[in-house]
Amino acid sequence: MSELVIAIDGPVGSGKSTVARRVAEVLGYVYLDSGAMYRAVAWKALRNHVPLDSEEELQAMAGASRIDLLSTDDSFRVLVDGADVTDEIRSAAVAQAASKVAVIAGVRTVLVKEQRRAARGGGVVMEGRDIGTVVFPDAGLKIFLEASVEVRAERRRLEHAQKGECLELSEVLEEVRQRDRRDRERAVSPLVRAHDAVLVDNTAMNAEETARLIVLLARERDGAKAAVRKV
Ligand code: DC
What we know:
single chain; alpha/beta; three-stranded antiparallel sheet; binds 2'-deoxycytidine-5'-monophosphate
């Protein structure tokens, strides 16, 4: 199979990470989580007491930072200026801060450039919110993952429970709704389905079924590309 860029976008709890990781594994591609970059910038801002609404300072900080995403078959590590922050960026505080940092146009400009650089040469599955619309408008395959808000909240509740945090479903539902609003209603690069993205509603599918469907679509796209190359 040749080296497509596969863009997977979708709201929180739509299964992007698990599905994107699995698709990359089956196809032998590199998995890249663009959200980890926003989290990395947020982590550094919190650590250095940079105000989360200061566009100028955040853009300068993002531009002067080195963010490395190290993707192997069985692990995905995130380094900021050489320090491994993989686990720290998953905290609730960093998630909140990341959603604030992500509305800042200057930060997005810096990170989008990095994301394009990371995927040079293709053979990449990148997940996020604006991958098919802004980062790779010419991606070989674009997927927009969806699921009902109730199912997405239940998935998030289970994730929290696995980390030992027991939350009420109603609480998680409210958190998911708030994050949806922030992602979909922001002025810069809001979460929207690209006109040419395949909509996959996985409300009634598990991650493995969703990944298999995307692998089939990727193989079909790749076959079509190869046929065009022969003509
Ligand atoms: O997917 P995630 O929860 O790790 O993303 C962290 C934050 O970054 C979240 O608020 C959405 C935002 N994000 C974004 O705006 N654009 C992306 N391509 C990826 C994530």
